[in-house]
């Protein structure tokens, strides 16, 4: 017996849910322990319930088990094997430009990177190229530079640059230390403007 089959047998008394939470409707697909498949469609925003995915799960569990599950009480997770959920809400917000105001936090020297993009032009000979607007309202430029250690590089390094180790174990040279004081001031500046969402894009931040 494969590990997958054994896992399925061990959890055959539990529900599985796959949910698509859209801007208008939420679709809930459920595989029930008795082999039955239930599908439910709800309004994504409805004053009758606070959260559409949770409400769909609650209704299916209540209908199938016959056990009363009040909407204002937590759902017992022991009934559920897994929940998989996707959403188009974020995509819709990007397309319709209805998301929260946000600021871009990016390494110094790259502040216009998203505006420049990859210079793709559908009609390369157009005399007037209209670029899409950037999504951020403000930019915070972060002073500080890390460079990957490359023994055969002939680039002139700054004096007294430190060697640091990233979370991935790779070595980096700290050419310029992070200016935390200036960063704190800049963050406070955008917060004072009412911007509470940040997209952080720092060079080598993955390590």
Keywords:
207 residues; alpha/beta; four-stranded mixed beta sheet; three-stranded parallel beta sheet; 5 helices; 10 strands; 29% strand; disordered N terminus
Structural description of this entry:
The chain has helices at 3-10, 52-65, 89-96, 113-116, 180-192, and strands spanning 15-21, 25-31, 37-43, 80-87, 102-107, 138-142, 145-148, 162-165, 171-176, 197-201. The protein has 207 residues and is an alpha/beta fold. The strands form three sheets. It has a four-stranded mixed β-sheet. The chain starts with a helix and ends in a 6-residue tail after the last strand.
Helix content: 10-25%
Strand content: 25-35%
Which class best fits the helix and strand makeup? alpha/beta
What characteristic shape results from the CA principal axes? elongated
Strand order of the largest sheet: 3-2-1-4
Layout of secondary structure:
Blueprint: H1 3-10, E1 15-21, E2 25-31, E3 37-43, H2 52-65, E4 80-87, H3 89-96, E5 102-107, H4 113-116, E6 138-142, E7 145-148, E8 162-165, E9 171-176, H5 180-192, E10 197-201
Parallel strand pairs: 1-4, 5-6, 5-10
Antiparallel strand pairs: 1-2, 2-3, 7-9, 8-9
